[in-house]
Model the fold of this input.
Amino acid sequence: MSITVLGYAAQSNKAPLVPFHFERRDPRPDDVAIEILYCGVCHSDLHQARNDWGYSQYPLVPGHEIIGRVTAVGAEVNKFKPGDLVGVGCMVDSCRECSPCQHGLEQYCEQGFVQTYNGVDRHDHRPTFGGYSQSIVCTQDFVLRIPENLDVKSVAPLLCAGITTWSPLKHWGVTKGSKVAVIGLGGLGHMALKLAHALGAEVTLFTRSAAKEADARKLGAHHVVLSTDAGQMDAVKGKFSLIIDTVPYTHDINAYMSTLTLDGTLVFVGLVGKIEPTMDTTPMLFGRRSVAGSCIGGIAETQEMLDFCGEHNITADSEVIRMDEINDAFERLLKSDVKYRFVIDMKTLTA
Done:
């Protein structure tokens, strides 16, 4: 059994997103059915719709920053009830048996986590479709509880941009007094500033644009460093224990390495691909500095982040759009013309 729902889909890497009817499964015993209220627009939605990473399957319904209300639950569901405000992020399942899954690190599942869209369901082997749609069905173990006090339309980006920056902040032990820098001020970068500040860190933004200083300070940066200014870069040598690099395209990181402390780490959260130009290992060898990567976060960690945001009243800075504005929003994303995340009001979804 299944139900027909309406969404927006790309039919090829060259095609705009258009209305698309498709099937959602009837809830299994451990499933939660959710009416989607809002869905964030992630840069990876654009990458996948246009097959930039080379593994998109069409038709493709994007969206993995999903906020909604529970409408029904399966017979074995004990975590949620109809009416609950919930979220679904980048994953809807994993093997649950490998070592990463057993340690709450489903994002590193050895068999590969099941993507919310452009994935394949582990049980019925049907393609997964995302949150640019009326509803979604998901196992309760990958559904998240959303604090009711937060502005619901601005919560959706926490489920990707939020957790993607929260996970390295927690893994590398950022606490009160930590010196943290963020490279890039976009969807990920603005959340990194907010979360690091709320954790009590001394926060610096690296940027190539002096015009971003006022916004950066409003978002939680204590300092702003122009990465194109050699004097400003020299002034912060050896300062940061952690640098979160949110830039989603190939760029030169060599200038940042000497700004790390002994045992400091630069962690990529935005770039998917090769590091270019070639890295100079000298500052790594003579400062025991590291370059690392981090991918979203596990379900327990994501819930921890949401609860933290509820306690500190943290949401994303968002621009709400209609569903039929998504293709224009994609073009604006390419120009970084948003502060700092688009969110689709799903009430505007019509055929």
Notes: The first helix runs from residue 43 to 49. The mean pLDDT is 96. The chain has two domains: 2-160+298-348, 161-293. The radius of gyration is 20 Å.
